[in-house]
TrEMBL record:
Keywords: Cytokine, Cytoplasm, Inflammatory response, Lysosome, Mitogen, Pyrogen, Secreted. It holds the Pfam family IL1_propep. It comes from the Eukaryota. It comes from Atlantisia rogersi. Residues 18-81 form the Interleukin-1 propeptide domain. GO terms for molecular function: cytokine activity; interleukin-1 receptor binding. The keyword rRNA-binding does not apply. GO terms for cellular component: cytosol; extracellular space; lysosome. The gene is Il1b. It is found in: Cytoplasm, Cytosol; Lysosome; Secreted, Extracellular exosome. CDD domains: beta-trefoil_IL1B. Belongs to the IL-1 family. This is Interleukin-1. GO terms for biological process: cellular response to lipopolysaccharide; cytokine-mediated signaling pathway; fever generation; immune response; positive regulation of cell division; positive regulation of gene expression. Monomer.
Amino acid sequence: SLNEETFYGLDCLCPQKKLCLDLELTSPGVGIQVTLTKGHPSRTFRQAAVLVVAVTKLLKRSAHKDFADSDLGSFLDDIFEPISFQKIESSYTGAPVYRYTRSQSFDILDIDHKCFVLESPTQLVALHLQGPSNGRKVKLNIALYRPRSSQGGPGTGQVPVALGIKGYQLYMSCVMSGAEPVLQLEEADIRRDIESEEMTRFIFYRLDSPAEGTTRFESAAFPGWFICTSLQPRQPVGITNQPDQVNIATYELSRH
């Protein structure tokens, strides 16, 4: 039967009204009272009705049959609404890893036979040298690395290297300056494993052409950009994305 009952609320000492539903079940001495509170009316009444039906079914079970966990599970499934969970998957791609193997020294000339000369502490230029001035040319100390299988290697014609100036702790690096990358010399010692993305500025892919006996050096940090010299003498060694068009990006290496 539906009736009204006076009670005192938690936030107010004045009498308030609540709705009670008293239901006498067939089992003697068992009373069920369902209280309807403010909220979603249809959902609250539905849950109350399901609760009454579920308890009624339980009381009608045979006295000799034990209450099983499965009975409680189905009972709770009827009362509580299911909660859905969203599965979030994420992945992280690590920076390229280059394993240092060894270093070798080479003489280098561009295909116009210009040598590399260290003209200031951090400025590398290309110019023609003859006679006694030939001793000014620098040798490259090329550090060789073994890449991960997905990054090429001797079989693909792409060998990762770092290009140092022999006798100095200077290495070529490719960094962004303004809207385009530039080539610079940095004081460093990178004859070790390269395990961070930041250090890939020192890595270049050595692209050999065995038939011509020449090679190019492509930046690993900026694919499509190659170390180049100017068509004019005594100009800085730089980097370009238009190799051998208005510059020279092909070299000859020799060991002595």
